[in-house]
Amino acid sequence: MFRGIDKKRLLIISYSESSANTYYEQIKTLFSDNIVLEKICIDSEKIKNGIEADLVLVQSQDVFRFIKPYMQKKTDIIIATRTISKAGLEKVMQIEEGASVLFLDETKEMAMQMISVLYQLGIRNLDIEPGYPGNNDQMNKDYIIVLGTSAYNSYPCKKVINVGNSLLELNTIIDIGTKLNLSDILQRQNIRESYREIVTTNIGLSNVMGLSNRFESELDILLQILDDGIIGIDAEGIIRTYTEMAENIIGYKKNQVMNKHGLEIMPDIPFKLALENLEAVKEKLIKINGYDIVASVHPIIHSGKLYGAVAIVRKFSDIEKNQHKLRQQLIGKGHIAKYNFRDIIGESEAIKKCKNIAKRMAKSDSSVMITGETGTGKEMFAQAIHNSSQRKDYQFVAVNCGALPESLLESELFGYEEGAFTGARKGGKPGLFELAHNGTLFLDEIGEMPINLQMRLLRVIQEREVMRIGGDRLIKVNIRIIAATNRNLKEMVRKGEFREDLYYRLNVLPLKIPPLRDRKEDILFLINEMKNEFKSNFHFTEASKEMLINHNWRGNIRELKNYVEYLANLELDSIDVKDLPFNDEVVLHEDILTHDEEKMAEEFLELADEKIDKYIFIMEELKKSYINKTRIGRRTLYKTAREKGFFISEQEARLILINLEKFLMAKVHKGRGGSVITEYGIRVLKYLKVEVQDSK
């Protein structure tokens, strides 16, 4: 039998016709017309006429022992490894734990084989015993599991579970292809579709390779099932496997890499690390041909012998959700928005209006400029806007533009390539623009950003693309910018300290946070909320309440919280004026300046900036001269400063006097008339000394 053709001949010998038909369809689908495929049952008289096939597939050892006398010596044989479908496995998993179960198959050997398959697939909570024809001892089980149409379903039991016909395991199919020299045919088939519903017990690629020790033939076939790119090397680093998906991701054609040294062609893939340490390298972010790739490498080891390694690669841009998780790992746990609008509390009209404006801004994707004094909660508003926007599921990346030197701020924002500068991290580093992709970048203290970086920031906002330091590739970024400052950016623009074009790019949606002194009705309300946070229950006298409300609150919410924490630690039931930590400060500030004068003084402070000590020195000397009813000139001021070890040039003294007159704090007379401080100047001097002391 089976004679007269050139194609390889495969004979399926099974106990039942239904099993033979199932195996026949599986094999036919994969090998198509490249083999001659026939099937018979074990009770067929044809067997006794002799078996002349190239390969025989049998269901069990018992079948092999039965047909062995009728086989030619040149005929090869495979004893099938079987499994079940995903749908069948799900049915078994529904059986309650501890139930007694009978698994019914053609023979005891085959039943035991299928029970072991279920065990490998995780069914370990059931008492399963083998059932087979002629064995009537298995009675009164809760469940009986049958394969397809079974004639042995007359056992008395609670329920019959039909898991469908058994299916050939993937490694049996591979064995068939290998023994018939048809691995190349098998590799061209859509294995993914053919085996989508099959549950395999050979889960790990490394395990499959270890069990078969046939790296070249099996890996190429098995990895067609995966959606990721697969690259396999042998123990010497030579590329033996390179899937079509890997070709799409990496960019190299198959004929460019096959049988070549993988560690040289793709040095960024951590093959070397996996081979040397004999441990898996998981989820490493690398760059190949300009693309960010996520690569995992697993060494293939069996019986203590290293056979090679397999890499699983995915293009970073193609897996958005995983990309988001990786970004979160890269930027750390700190870059998340914790606050929502419900966390911004207050009953005043000022804060309610501000929140309503911010909520409307959150719906937009335009840049937001948040202004306000220190301690008013600018970052809290920024986080609330992010958490109410369409970007809330992505990262909120914050950077303080005034806390870092220019060079460090540049590398943090834009990132850098390997070797971009001395000390650059190996492999380079993504910048905060990249890490904030699809999310929000919060630029705190934007007024402190160096003028040189402002141009680069403007380009990122305009073009939505960034180039790393030392790089030559533009990286697309999709981010929303929220900036914040306590400085007067308009005045900085006027002075040339801040780029006008950047100002208008950032100030699309302006949001001004009211200071605490403009929402005095919130002060006691906020204190009560903060008391709960510190688990304290003190109360205020009427006098202390009045003083709290009339306090200047230059530190705003931050200052208020510090004082509440201080008072909570006093462990007093009643807080009077004498217990308030700013009692002396209130006296110092009381009636110093009106509200309008205070605003002018703040502008003066911004002008004086780092030279404020020199201004105070000159104003002190002018005050002494005023008390003595004399006038003093810039040359005398210069000499007095030198005598007291305080360096002020004559030109500096002249400029300071001009600015004092400009702000109505002094009167400068021409010629030898000298200069004199005004009463307003004396009050500002008192105010400035308090401010400078507070800042220290």
From TrEMBL:
Question: Mind telling me which Gene3D superfamilies this protein's record contains?
Answer: 1.10.8.60, P-loop containing nucleotide triphosphate hydrolases, PAS domain
Entry's Pfam families? AAA_lid_14, Sigma54_activat
Ranges where the PAS domain occurs: 215-263
| InterPro entries per the UniProt record, alphabetical | AAA+_ATPase, AAA_lid_NorR, P-loop_NTPase, PAS, PAS-like_dom_sf, Sigma_54_int, Sigma_54_int_dom_ATP-bd_1, Sigma_54_int_dom_ATP-bd_2
- The residue ranges of the Sigma-54 factor interaction domain are 344-569
PANTHER family named among the record's database cross-references? C4-DICARBOXYLATE TRANSPORT TRANSCRIPTIONAL REGULATORY PROTEIN DCTD, TRANSCRIPTIONAL REGULATORY PROTEIN
Q: What is this protein called?
A: Putative sigma54 specific transcriptional regulator
Native organism is Clostridium carboxidivorans P7
